[in-house]
Amino acid sequence: MADDAAPHADVLNSTAQGQLKSIIDRVERLEVEKTEIAEQIKEVYLEAKGNGFDVKILRKVVRLRKTDRAKRQEEDAILDLYLSAIGEI
Predict the structure, then answer these.
(1) CA dihedral 47, 51, 56, 61 (to 10 degrees)
(2) Which portions of this protein are annotated as coiled-coil regions?
(3) Are 49 and 55 in contact (CB under 8 A)?
């Protein structure tokens, strides 16, 4: 694979090659950070579970807090409408 890439190296000038390498390096560092953060979040949820909290509900609360209040109210109203239409509420 490296042999295939070598003939194309001259397609990009040295500045572009440097920029490309920098971008790739940054993305790779961010991917590592993302993995580390995901592990930390997992640990927080495990701590919450250990303290008796329902992790599924906590995740839902976090997700809901990310949503705009008006958008959430609109979704709730539509959900209630649908549930009412099928006799669930």
Answers:
(1) -90
(2) none
(3) yes
